[in-house]
Amino acid sequence: MDHSVKPQPEADPCEPAADAIIEACGGDPREAVIALLGERDHLLGRIEALEESISWGFLRAGPRHQAFTE
């Protein structure tokens, strides 16, 4: 008989956040998914706006310029 101690699976660090989101949506997992999809779309829009505000000249010169300064 094997009496060795089996390691416990590590707790998922996202579990408390997932529980909080579901609770904030009235306990409805479907509403939580809809809310998360809306947040994702909002964040994607912010990323796109930030990308548009970046100087493309700076991006083009970035890695090449860094090679010359080292």
Number of E strands? 0
Percent in helix: over 70%
Mean pLDDT: 83
How far apart, in Å, are the first and last alpha carbons?
Answer: 62 Å
Sheet with most strands: none
What portion of residues belong to β-strands? under 5%
Uncertain residue segments: none
Order of helices and strands: HHH
Number of helices: 3
Q: Which structural class fits the helix and strand makeup?
A: mainly alpha
Q: Using only CA atoms, what is the Rg?
A: 23 Å
Q: What would the principal axes of the Cα set say about the shape?
A: flat
What does this structure look like?
The chain is an all-alpha fold and 70 residues long. The chain has a domain at 28-69. The chain contains 3 helices and no strands. The longest helix has 25 residues, at 29-53. The model has no long low-confidence stretch (mean pLDDT 83).
Brief descriptors of the model:
70 residues; 3 helices; mainly alpha
Structure described in brief:
The protein has helices at residues 15-24, 29-53, 56-69.
List the helices and strands and how they pair.
Layout: H1 15-24, H2 29-53, H3 56-69
